[in-house]
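Per your request, structure below.
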């Protein structure tokens, strides 16, 4: 058995004016709880340091260009990690010997904006980072919406793809929110032997393009992550920033999912909460070496369209 005790550190809402230092104090509280419960790894959500700012049109531009007063918009991005405000989290995690993943808005030194997650080992070393691949929502202000989902305005699509890392005694990878809905996300990491995928999310319950899906948000959330886990023989940790944030209700339902596709542990609140499971990474082999023995059963020569074609073309 290669067991790893993991905490999905679900967050409740973060207010628009909540100082980063207060958010970091909440993260440290969760870290302490996880350490007391014997966890070696804590998974924090997507954009875990700020409110979900893509719900507002924050610049003056109406077209694709981000223009005008960017004071508030730019204030949501981190230009380095760790930095002065997050250093206490890094220090405390290292002192406790607990690793973590943390989602945040990244502004690179050349001004590029990514929805990023960093992975830090138990000794405080940075294992790697992941920049979100599937960016949902819209590019321009849509004033008819009750609230915006301007991720496609505020974040660039990563060209780096889905890497995996040897860390925490296994093969681990990351994905972010909307990525979890796409089977390619899991399969690309599955083909690199992934045993644990960490996924942070902010999922508004109200889906403006088709409100009929609102009631199914919880079902779809677990459906995709359970399928991704089972079909690739991997653990999946899905962790929300949930609850009603600035008037917008977001899905909670954080869960730790086994390679069987079963939910091993699940959140019962919509606020700050630790969801904990002891995960045997060797369990992955039961699926990777049987039904989902890729080397034996996959037919990649039959799947060419997956990479050669983007949108569907009907006959
Ligand atoms: N943050 C994020 O990716 N949220 C999306 C909302 C989709 S609707 C624009 C999600 O897939 O949950």
């Amino acid at each position: 058995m290669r067991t790893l005790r993991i905490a999905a550190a679900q967050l409740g809402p973060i207010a628009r004016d909540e100082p980063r230092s207060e958010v970091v104090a909440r993260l440290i509280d969760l870290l302490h709880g996880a350490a007391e419960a014997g966890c070696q790894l804590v998974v924090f959500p997507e954009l875990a340091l700020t409110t979900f700012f893509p719900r507002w049109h924050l610049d003056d531009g109406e077209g694709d260009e981000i223009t005008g007063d960017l004071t508030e918009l730019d204030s949501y991005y981190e230009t380095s990690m760790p930095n002065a405000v997050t250093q206490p989290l890094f220090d405390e995690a290292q002192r406790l010997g607990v690793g973590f993943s943390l989602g945040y808005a990244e502004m690179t030194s050349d001004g590029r904006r990514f929805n990023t997650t960093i992975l830090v080992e138990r000794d405080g070393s940075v294992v790697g980072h992941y920049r979100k691949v599937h960016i949902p929502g819209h590019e321009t202000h849509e004033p008819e919406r009750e609230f915006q989902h301007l991720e496609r305005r505020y974040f660039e699509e990563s060209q780096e793809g889905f890497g995996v890392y040897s860390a925490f005694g296994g093969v681990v990878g990351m994905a972010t929110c909307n990525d979890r809905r796409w089977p390619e996300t899991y399969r690309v990491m599955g083909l690199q032997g992934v045993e644990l995928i960490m996924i942070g999310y902010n999922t508004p319950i109200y889906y403006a393009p088709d409100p009929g899906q609102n009631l199914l948000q919880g079902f779809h959330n677990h459906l995709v992550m359970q399928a991704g886990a089972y079909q690739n023989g991997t653990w999946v940790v899905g962790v929300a920033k949930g609850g009603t944030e600035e008037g917008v209700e977001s899905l909670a339902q954080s869960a730790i999912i086994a390679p069987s596709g079963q939910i091993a542990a699940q959140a019962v609140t919509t606020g700050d909460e630790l969801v904990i499971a002891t995960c045997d990474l060797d369990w992955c082999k039961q699926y990777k070496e049987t039904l989902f023995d890729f080397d034996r059963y996959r037919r990649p020569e039959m799947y060419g369209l997956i990479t050669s074609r983007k949108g569907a073309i009907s006959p």
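The longest helix spans residues 20-36.

Regards,
D.
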